[in-house]
Amino acid sequence: MNLRRVRYLLRLMETSSLAEVEVRDNGVDLRVTRSPRSAASLAQHQSPTICSLSQAEASGPDEHIVRSPRVGICYASPGPDQPPFVSIGGTVQRGDTLGIVSALSTVSPIKAHASGTMLRILVENGQPVEFDQPLFVIG
């Protein structure tokens, strides 16, 4: 088993609802288990109220697309029992935290780069996201 395969298994765990993966390869046994406070357990408990699927592109010159700073899982609130960072129709100031992206126990805030009104939220709570993927539209 090589490092590339281990990384693949970790990414698989991160982007799926799997709780455990066990692999046997050339005499090497590897078991990866998700901890109770992992990204998947947070996704199950967080409210999806602010996240709805919409078009991925801004339609006007006064609209600003906020993109994912990294690959990971996007969350709408800082914790399972906490309110969402933003909601559609809410006022957003430049520098406000709109959500977080979690990957391999590292959390990266998603910051607003413009002030305005939250027009669209383009991802669902707990959804895997790619680097530079459109997440929010501010107008």
From TrEMBL:
<keyword id="KW-0443">Lipid metabolism</keyword>
<keyword id="KW-0275">Fatty acid biosynthesis</keyword>
<dbReference type="GO" id="GO:0009317">
    <property type="term" value="C:acetyl-CoA carboxylase complex"/>
</dbReference>
<dbReference type="GO" id="GO:0003989">
    <property type="term" value="F:acetyl-CoA carboxylase activity"/>
</dbReference>
<dbReference type="InterPro" id="IPR000089">
    <property type="entry name" value="Biotin_lipoyl"/>
</dbReference>
<keyword id="KW-0092">Biotin</keyword>
<keyword id="KW-0436">Ligase</keyword>
<keyword id="KW-0444">Lipid biosynthesis</keyword>
<comment type="function">
    <text>This protein is a component of the acetyl coenzyme A carboxylase complex; first, biotin carboxylase catalyzes the carboxylation of the carrier protein and then the transcarboxylase transfers the carboxyl group to form malonyl-CoA.</text>
</comment>
<protein>
    <recommendedName>
        <fullName>Biotin carboxyl carrier protein of acetyl-CoA carboxylase</fullName>
    </recommendedName>
</protein>
<dbReference type="GO" id="GO:0006633">
    <property type="term" value="P:fatty acid biosynthetic process"/>
</dbReference>
<dbReference type="InterPro" id="IPR011053">
    <property type="entry name" value="Single_hybrid_motif"/>
</dbReference>
<feature type="domain" description="Lipoyl-binding">
    <location>
        <begin position="63"/>
        <end position="139"/>
    </location>
</feature>
<dbReference type="Pfam" id="PF00364">
    <property type="entry name" value="Biotin_lipoyl"/>
</dbReference>
<comment type="pathway">
    <text>Lipid metabolism; fatty acid biosynthesis.</text>
</comment>
<keyword id="KW-0276">Fatty acid metabolism</keyword>
<dbReference type="InterPro" id="IPR001249">
    <property type="entry name" value="AcCoA_biotinCC"/>
</dbReference>
